[in-house]
Amino acid sequence: MQARVKWLDHMSFVAESGSGHSIVLDGSSEHGGRNLGIRPMESVLIGLGACSAFDVVLMLKKARQNIRDCEVLIEAERADAVPAVFTKVEMVYQVDGTDLSEKQVKRAVSLSVEKYCSVAKMLEESVEITHRVEIAPGSLAV
Question: Residues with Cβ < 8 Å from 7, sequence gap 6 or more?
Answer without folding.
Answer: 13
